[in-house]
Amino acid sequence: MRALRSGLLARRSWVCMQCRSASTKPAAASHNKSGLPNFPARTRFAPSPTGYLHLGSLRTALFNYLLAKRTGGQFLLRIEDTDQARTIPGAEQRLYDDLNWAGLHWDEGPVVGGAFGPYKQSERTNIYRKHTHDLIHDGHAYRCFCSKERLDTLARHRSESGLAPGYDRTCTELSADESEERAAKGGSHVVRLKVDKYPDYKDLVYGTTGKNRSKKLDLLEGADILGRVYDDPILLKSDGHPTYHLANVVDDHLMEISHVIRGTEWMSSTPMHVALYNAFGWTPPNFAHVPLLVEPTGEKLSKRNRDIDLAHFRDKQGIFAASLLNFSALLGWSHTGKSDIFSLEELEKIFTLKITRGNTVVAFEKLWFLQKAHAQRFAAQERPEFNDMVTAVSKEVEATVAAEPLSQILQSRSLSDLVTPLLKADAKSYTTASEFVARNSTFFSTSIDRPEYTPVSSTPIPISSLHTAAAALTLVPNAHWAIATHKFNISSYDGASALQAESENVDIPIPDEKSRIAADKAFKKELYHYLRWALSAGAPGPGIPETMVILGRDESVRRLTEGMKLTRDVKARSPVAERLVREKEREKAKAKSEGEGPLTGGKEKDLSWMGSLAPKE
Ligand code: GLU
Fold first, then answer.
1. Separation CA 232–CA 229 (nearest Å)
2. Residues 328-385: pLDDT tens digits?
3. For residue 261, how far is its CA from the centre of ligand 1 (angstroms)?
4. Is the confidence at residue 591, as pLDDT, over 60?
5. Is 0.85 topped by the overall pTM?
C-alpha cells in the first residue's frame, strides 16, 4: 500500500492551489455559442438513492443524456450512496426502472458496467481514502482530531456572536508525524481540505461565478475561541467514509466526466469542488447549472406541492414517457423549433445548452397539451405506445361500463376493434384512459341521454329536411359503410335543394349561385349539429363519418331513427324563425280570406325565413 502510494506520489510535484487554479484553462473556450462542446461529452447522472426520481431530477438526467447523445459522447449513471443512513431500501432499483421507462438508457453504470466502475460510491471507499491520503501528503488536507464537544462550543460561540460558522484550524498545528501517529493509534478524526480562498469558475449557463468565501480573519479581541476561522470542508468522515463533495469530485475526475449538469442547488458547493480539483491538480469538468423549478406562485416546486415522483405521473396520471420527457426538456431550455413537440430522438438531434437563467415556472397545463400531441402522434404513426393506449382504454371500459349494452354495440367485434378506431379518431383529445372513456361514453352504451334538440343555424332549417338527409345516409349498405363513403355523401348532399324541396307552398325561383352556396353551408352546419346530437348526444369527439363507422351500421341507424322520432314535432328552429313562421301562417290565412292564392299576389311577402334561399329583388 505504502509502495503504491509513494509510486503515485513520485509522479506528483507540489503546486500551490492558487497557482493550479490560475493555470486551469477556461474550459468553456471549446464550446460554441449554443454551449455545445466541440468534442464528445461524457456526462453523468448521479442520483442518491435517498428518494425517487421526480420532475427536477428527471430533467437533470435528461439534459445530461441529451448532451452526450447530441455530441456523440457517453451518458453515465452513478449511484451516490455515501449517505447510507438516508438510503431508502428499493430506491436504487426504482431509479433504474424509472430511467429505463423514460428511455434514458445509460452507456456506463450499474447493471450495464463499463471501464470506469464500480459505479456505486459505496463500492469505491478505498479509492476515496487513497486520494485523501494523497492530499494529506501534499499538504492540501489535514486530519482534524477535534472532538464534537469542542466543535460545538466553537460553533455556539460564533453563532452567539453573530459570526459565520467555521473551523479555527487548531489541528493544522500538529506535525505530520504526530498526526500519523494519532491516526495509527485509532484517534478519531476527520480529514479536512485546507482552503483559504474559493476560486471562481466559469459556468456554462451562469458565466463566471463563485462566492469567494474568503474566511480570512474573523478576529475578536480577547476571545481566542473566536479567532481565525476557515471553511476547510470535511472530505473524509470519522467513520472513514467520504463526504459527497470528495466522492463526487474524485469520481467525476476518474470517470473522465467532461460536463456536469446539475441543479442550481449545487451551485454553492461548486467553488469548493473546484478548490478540490485544484488541490488534486486536476482540470475541473465544465459545469452547467440548471435553474430551480418553481410553482407559478414562485414557491419552489417540492414534494410538498407538486414535484411529485415519476410514478405519480406514470401510474396515477397515465402520462406517457414521451410527454413527460418533452415537458421536462422545455423546463428552462430554449430552442428555435417551430413547435414544442419533440420525441426523445428529436431532442437528441437538436439539444443545446441554451438554458435560461433564473427560476423556471412549471405550468402543468403544458404537460396535458403535450400528452394530447404525443397521443395523436402515436395514433398516426401506429407506434407501440398506441397499443398501450388501446389496452389502457379497454381496461377502463371493462372496469366502468355495463357489459350488456356494450355487447350490443360490439356485436361480433372485440372491444379493441371498437376502441382502436375510436382512439385513432379522437387521439388529439387523449389525456388519460379514464377521461377518454368519460368523454366518449356514448360509444360504449346504447342508452344515450340526449338533451332537447336546439338548432344552431340562424337560417331556419326545417327539421324534415334534416330527417331526409339523415335517412339518406342510412341507405348505405353494410359493405360500403366506411368513412370515405359517409364523407362523400355528406359533402355532396345538396343542402340548398333540400331546403327548397322542403319549403312547401312556396314558389321559389332558382336562387343564384352565391345564395345556393350560403344555403348549403347553413344546411350542412345544421345537419352536422343534428347528426352529432342524434348519434352521440352532441358530445365532442370523432367526426360524424368516423362516429358512424365506429358505432357500426345497426347502431347508427338505430340512433338516427331514434333521433328522428324525438324531433318529429320540432317545427322550427330559432325563436326568430318561430316568429317568422307564425307571421307567414297569418299572412297565408289573410290572403286566403281575401281570395288570393298563397303568397302569390300580396305585396308584402316576407320570405326572410328562407334566409339565403329567399328570392332576391
Ligand atoms: N448526488 C447528488 C444528488 O443527489 C448529485 C449532485 C451532482 O450531480 O453533482 O443530486
1. 9
2. 999 999 999 899 999 999 999 999 999 999 899 999 999 999 999 999 999 999 999 9
3. 9
4. yes
5. no
What per-residue confidence (pLDDT) applies to 20? 45
How far apart (Å, rounded) are the C-alpha atoms in residues 138 and 22? 18
Mutate to test the pocket of ligand 1, among 80, 252, 260 (most ligand atoms within 8 A of CB): 80
pLDDT single digits (tens) 97-140: 999 999 999 999 999 999 999 999 999 999 999 999 999 999 99
Asked if 247 and 124 count as a contact pair (C-beta separation under 8 A), the reply is: yes
| HEC profile of 330-386 | CCCECCCCCCCCCCHHHHHHHCCCCECCCCEECCHHHHHHHHHHHHHHHHHHCCHHH
Which of 42, 48, 62, 250 should be mutated for ligand 1, with most atoms under 8 A from CB?
48
Average pLDDT over all residues of the chain: 85
Local confidence band at 226 (pLDDT 50, 70, 90 cut-offs): very low
What gap in Å lies between CA 377 and CA 428, rounded to an integer?
9
Residue-wise pLDDT for 536-581, tens only, equals: 999 999 999 999 999 999 999 999 999 999 998 776 445 555 555 5
Count Cα neighbours of 322 within 13 Å in the Cβ-side half-sphere: 22
Task: Point out the residues that are catalytic.
Answer: 303
> How many angstroms does the Cα of residue 262 sit away from the middle of ligand 1?
7
Angle between helical axes of 483-492 and 463-473 (0-180°, round to 10): 150
User: pLDDT confidence of 593, banded at 50, 70, 90?
Assistant: low
Beta carbons of 83 and 48 less than 8 angstroms apart: yes
- The answer to whether the beta carbons of residues 45 and 76 sit under 8 Å apart is yes
Ligand 1 atom closest to 60 (CA): 8
For ligand 1, atom 5, the nearest C-alpha belongs to 46
| Closest atom of ligand 1 to CA, residue 252 | 9
Query: Is the predicted pLDDT of residue 164 greater than 60, yes or no?
Result: yes
The answer, yes or no, to whether residue 218 has pLDDT greater than 50, is no
pLDDT digit string, tens, across residues 430-451: 999 999 999 999 999 998 999 9
Among 309, 268, 247, 255, which residue's Cα sits nearest to residue 121? 247
The separation between CA 16 and the C-alpha centre of its own chain, rounded to angstroms, equals 47
Q: Which atom of ligand 1 is nearest to the CA of 44?
A: 8
8 Å CB contact between 104 and 65: yes
Compute the distance from residue 168 Cα to the ligand 1 centre, in Å.
Answer: 29
**Rounded distance, CA 73 to CA 255, Å?**
13
Residues 571, 439 contacting (CB under 8 angstroms): no
pLDDT, residue 29, reads 55
Q: What is the pLDDT of residue 305?
A: 67
Q: What is the dihedral of CA 234, 237, 242, 245, to 10 degrees?
A: -20
Burial 451-462 (b: 16+ CB within 10 A, else e): eebebebebbbb
Q: What is the DSSP letter of 79?
A: B
Q: Is the dihedral of CA 368, 370, 373, 378 positive or negative?
A: negative
